[in-house]
């Protein structure tokens, strides 16, 4: 694109993100830095439409950006800078002294939704200290309990669905095997070790016990809220100004996704490609079925520079990316620093 096309495109996107309404050629004629006729602007808009960057939602209407256009804008034209007011609000709300990780994560979600006026998502970290002892307890044919005693004295009870056919005896054998090889390892370490053990000594390890260990430790549900938690705040923000029935239906669909989402590790996996903010627009967002939503997400790390959770904002594709991106980024950095402090406990 030349300079004129780039400016027309940028103003179409910024106008749409600001108001939610299509942007017409007459409006652009008044706003462009170069004085040109409305006919010239219409020709430029037709070229941009041919490139798939903008579209007309209705006949004789102005133009709005397509998903491809939004992606191009975010990647190449977005001007994002953290404002002093936003920085102060994040630091005042998130950065207060707090030893309880759960309270910190709840406060992070509330702060993000309040600042961005959108729904916030926070994936709280799992407890990743070395394990001292493991016990499996059968509760029913399809329910079992794993008791984890960590080296730092922390104890967690997690309920999970064991593979079909497991017996109390096979669960005891699985626990005995794990306790013999724990040796200060974390749950992640044990999963990696089990994978290697099965590959090296497949004949010596009972396959059912392996299935129980693999599924029991990798896919648990936490009854006490101490495992990975997806914290959602500010859902009402998505309803503000959404009087259109179609928009309300889409928001309800998003709420349903948030409520029934059990495999929340997908949220964290979205961030594993590298540090910094990632933006998922429309159908690029594989976590939720709502194709008209956008997700701005950033991971946070512990003192060992390991990704342990993520914070994000979700809403319609008409998000204020220029403001939300730096807010999410700075919040993730601040959470990482807080978790790396000496007085924070899980």
TrEMBL record:
Name under which the protein is recorded: Heat-inducible transcription repressor HrcA
Family, as annotated: Belongs to the HrcA family.
Keyword set, alphabetical order: Repressor, Stress response, Transcription, Transcription regulation
Entry-linked Pfam families: HrcA
InterPro entries: GAF-like_dom_sf, HrcA, HrcA_C, WH-like_DNA-bd_sf, WH_DNA-bd_sf, WHTH_transcript_rep_HrcA_IDD
Role this protein plays: Negative regulator of class I heat shock genes (grpE-dnaK-dnaJ and groELS operons). Prevents heat-shock induction of these operons.
Tree of life domain: Bacteria
Every Heat-inducible transcription repressor HrcA C-terminal domain range: 102-325
Keyword Transcription regulation carried by entry: yes
């Amino acid at each position: 694109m030349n300079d004129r096309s780039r400016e027309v495109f940028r103003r179409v996107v910024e106008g749409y993100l600001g108001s939610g309404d299509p942007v017409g050629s007459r409006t652009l004629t008044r706003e462009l830095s170069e004085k040109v006729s409305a006919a010239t602007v219409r020709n430029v808009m037709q070229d941009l439409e041919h490139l798939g960057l903008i579209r007309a939602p209705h006949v004789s209407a102005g133009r709005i950006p397509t998903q491809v256009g939004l992606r191009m804008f975010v990647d190449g034209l977005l001007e994002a800078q953290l404002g002093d007011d936003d920085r102060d609000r994040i630091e005042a709300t998130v950065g207060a002294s707090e030893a309880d990780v759960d309270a910190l994560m709840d406060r992070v979600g509330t702060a993000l939704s309040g600042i961005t006026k959108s729904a916030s998502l926070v994936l709280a970290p799992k407890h990743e200290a070395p394990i001292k002892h493991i016990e499996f307890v059968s509760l029913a044919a399809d329910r079992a309990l794993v008791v984890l005693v960590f080296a730092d004295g922390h104890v967690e009870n997690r309920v999970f669905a064991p593979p079909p056919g497991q017996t109390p005896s096979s669960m005891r054998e699985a626990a005995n095997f794990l306790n013999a090889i724990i040796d200060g390892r974390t749950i992640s370490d044990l999963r990696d070790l089990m994978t290697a053990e099965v590959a090296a000594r497949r004949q010596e390890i009972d396959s059912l016990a392996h299935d129980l260990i693999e599924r029991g430790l990798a896919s648990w549900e936490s009854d006490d809220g101490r495992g990975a938690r997806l914290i959602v705040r500010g859902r009402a923000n998505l309803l503000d100004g959404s009087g259109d029935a179609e928009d309300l239906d889409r928001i309800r669909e998003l709420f349903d996704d948030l409520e029934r989402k059990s495999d929340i590790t997908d949220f964290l996996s979205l961030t594993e490609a590298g540090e910094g903010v990632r933006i998922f627009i429309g159908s690029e967002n594989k976590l939720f079925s709502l194709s008209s939503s956008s997700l701005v997400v950033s991971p946070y790390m512990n003192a060992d520079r390991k990704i342990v959770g993520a914070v994000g904002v979700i809403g319609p594709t008409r998000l204020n990316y220029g403001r939300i991106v730096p807010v999410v980024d700075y919040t993730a950095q601040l959470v990482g620093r807080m978790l790396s402090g000496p007085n924070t406990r899980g």
